[in-house]
Amino acid sequence: MRSRSTLLDHILGSHPDVSGYTESHIKYRNPWDTLRLRWHVGIATRQWPRGRWLLDKQLHNRMYLPSTLRRSNRMRVIVLIRNPLDTLRSIVSMGRLLGNDRDADPRLAAAYYCQRVATLAGLAVEFGDRALLVDSDSLVNDSDTALSRIAKHLSLTKPLSKSYQVRKLTGRSGFGDMSALIHSGRVSQQRDADTHDADHLDVVLPPQLASVLQRCFDNCVGDASAWVPTVGFTRA
To answer: Where are the beta strands (DSSP E) in the chain?
Structure first.
């Protein structure tokens, strides 16, 4: 959560090779569940899916991928990770705004982050070069490089653009980022592109918790980068 995944989804979903721009919430159990994804994408885009790729994003460990899908050479994965302090501040701010007590609790939000990045590291090792590990900050700080590497990873027929289409589900609860900025239709460096409100900066985390979060992040990047290509990490 809060990794700018909504921004990346919209950029990808605006490319002619990619269909989809939202989170489907599908719990995949077998390859046939990809037909459910096709249906979901068709509803979200108001047209039959076109292009080479069907896109979905998964934010939680409970959204399981069976081995038949994980081992498929037709699957490509983008593992998007944001630095821990900005992520936690954004999660807690979102929780406060939406009245979600779990997300508003820094300790529970930190537990989610640590568990999630550990799982992502394991998946990255399993996928190998079918995965690309991307520093979320690079999407806004070095967009040209990040989008070029992502386009190459997916073998897209033309470059990805920093502009994207605003769709009928853009900004709606349950389908991704709900901030006003996601409606801008373009990558912005003026503010975080996946943040509800600037007051997330007022969230203060205990030093011990911040230290644990940083170790989780460093371990994830260090473990995964030995197995998968990376974008934007200074240590990778």
So the answer is: 18-19, 53-54, 77-81, 131-135, 230-231
Give a yes or no: residue 53 inside a domain: yes
Q: Which residue has the higher pLDDT, 10 or 98?
A: 10
3-state secondary structure (DSSP) of residue 36: helix
3-state secondary structure of 205: coil
Q: What is the mean pLDDT of residues 60-88?
A: 90
Structure tokens at 63: 């959204």
Please state, in angstroms and rounded to a whole number, the distance separating the CA atoms of residues 109 and 106.
5
Q: How many domains does the chain have?
A: 1
**Tokens found for residue 151:** 């386009």
pLDDT in tens, 30-68: 888 999 999 999 999 989 998 899 999 999 998 878 888
Q: What is the pLDDT of residues 117-158, one digit of tens each?
A: 999 999 999 999 999 999 999 999 999 999 999 999 999 999
Q: Domain containing 42 — which CATH number?
A: 3.40.50
- For residue 190, CA distances in Å to 44, 157, 171, 176, 198 come to 29, 30, 19, 20, 11
Which domain range does residue 178 map to? 5-231
pTM of the model: 0.90
| C-beta separation of 64 from 26 below 8 A | no
Q: Between 5-13 and 143-153, two packed helices, what is the crossing angle to 10 degrees?
A: 60
First CA to last CA distance, the chain = 22
CA 203 to CA 90: how far, in whole Å?
9
